[in-house]
Records
---
Amino acid sequence: ESKRLEVGYALHDDFWNKGIVAEATRAVIDSIYANTDMNRIEALCVSDHTRSYRVMEKSGMQFEGILRQASMMKSGICDMRIYSILREEHERAGNHS
């Protein structure tokens, strides 16, 4: 009903820094907007995982804020960064569905 969904990714560190995840994430976003009526796509990452949030930025997502102490990881409770892209932003960027 809310017309929103969350995307996520995980990649073995042997394949980091090759642009694979950013390219795949852009393709997933394009496909979602081309084939569904979703309005909002969002993603979360641990606040200090720079590589992960750079992928979101390269994928056209906008930083919305920090969810304080929102997740439990092996290292303990951590803050999460939230990013999103709206259908209208995706289309405005020239990605027509």
---
Amino acid sequence: MYKNLKNKVHTYSVVALFCMIFNFQLSAQDITLKINLSGVYESKISLMPLIGPNALKSIAEIASVKNGESGTISVSKDMLPAEFVLRFDYKEKETSTPYPSEKSIFINNQNLELWVKPMYSSNNDSTYFQKDEKENTLFAKFTKENGKQKEKLGLLQNFLMNYDTPLSKFYQQGIEEYEKRRGEYNQWLKELSTQHNELFVSHTFQFQYVPQISFKGSETDRIQSVIAHYFDGINFNDSLLINTANLKEWMNSYVNLFGSLSKTLAMRDSLFPLAGKTAIEKARLGNRKVYGWMVDYFFKGYESFNMTAGIKMLEPYINDTNCLTSKRQAIEKRLTGMKTLLTGTLAPDLTIKDDEGNDVLFSAYKTKSPYKLILFWSADCDHCKKLVKELYPWYQELSNKNLVDIFALSLDETETEIPIWQDAIIKLPGWKHQRCEGGINSKEANAYFILSTPVMILVDSKTNKI
């Protein structure tokens, strides 16, 4: 009996020790955000990341915090460091309709406490962190000082861009003064980033770098000058770049410079692959994750514009084992699929619903229309909304209704997306609507190598060929 009791005690001790270790690991992984609410009757509080697969989707919520009370949100260490949006759906009075307000915050490795009045969430006098808070405090100080510094440069740049006598000595003096101040500003950024390197927010300062610009020549010459020096101030060895919300915005500005040079579609299809190749070649010399992020970024862009030349340009980078892209396998699949989904080839079959709600093969669907149009879309996708806004009025014309049957295959799958889709299709009668289980990973999307929306495939009704 004593032996059995001893074994049980030993077992309980092991279990207790395991629970202690497990709980410690959980607490070590989580960062807490305590929110003290005031100034309103009550508020729902949501936390949304700005990057990643859950970007701008709530990852944590507190259903209700009343005036004078507090609520705590835990954030997994796996998601950090990162920038988030803290959303308040508040009621000013008990009978009021909820009204939204938002505050952007940085979360790294420090537990946070925030005192907030949702009606004044952007006012530092009404909404503030504990005294020893680091990330958001530094960002507020930087934003204030950076505005002063940039204002001086902006005045000089505006003068140099608009002065009507560029060959004068006075204009040359203006260029020299601008370059002097630009150098001082960029050096200030560098020193500040180095001084606060242990804080995540300091890694965002480099996006403010002002590249060299040639004020001589045409507007095109100036744009090309900015492009040539766009990456001068960025540290591609910094793996935390991909945790920032700024990186995508910064790259969008870079691509837009090429867009401003594109006067025709042919030029666009030539310049955008060049933009991608130039940026990726810079990034591949740095951190592998940043290199992979850059390939992902351009892949998504080329996919949205259905830019075959751009996707093909990415192929050698996909085959580079040093490229840590999350889209590696997907791009390989897309490249393979592009070789099979050609005009004149049979459209991959899939199961759809006929007018009576029965399952039928797409190839066997009977119609008097000469064409069948497959539309992969998402009701929560801005590009899709724009397309549908143009396509549906076109379809409503009698001659076009007789010309084509439209099969709208939705890739909406989240709890937020599905209700939006259900509301949207009510306004689109006449189309054959179906939601693909699994979204982008559904068997329907896989059959057509779909990785983004919208995508349309026009099929001959008689031959079932693309």
